[in-house]
Design a protein that fits this description.
This protein is mainly beta. Helix content is about 0%, strand content about 45%.
Length: about 60
């Protein structure tokens, strides 16, 4: 269980595209597959579309 004020780094994999939601938390997607996101692409989210590849994100 994550504690308030801590950061977790997750890697999501999907064999088919799928929506991923964390209720009551927010996160920032850092990369999609091998593509690192640019600073202007970073934003707080509670839902993300996971393509058929890895997505790395940090949950606050």
């Amino acid at each position: 269980m994550a504690r308030k004020g801590t950061i977790e780094r997750w890697i999501l994999n999907a064999s088919l595209p799928v929506g991923f939601t964390i209720q009551g938390a927010k996160f920032v997607v850092e990369s999609q597959g091998e593509h690192q996101l640019q600073a202007e692409e970073l934003a707080w989210k509670d839902t993300v579309w996971v393509k058929k590849q890895n997505s790395n994100f940090s949950e606050i």
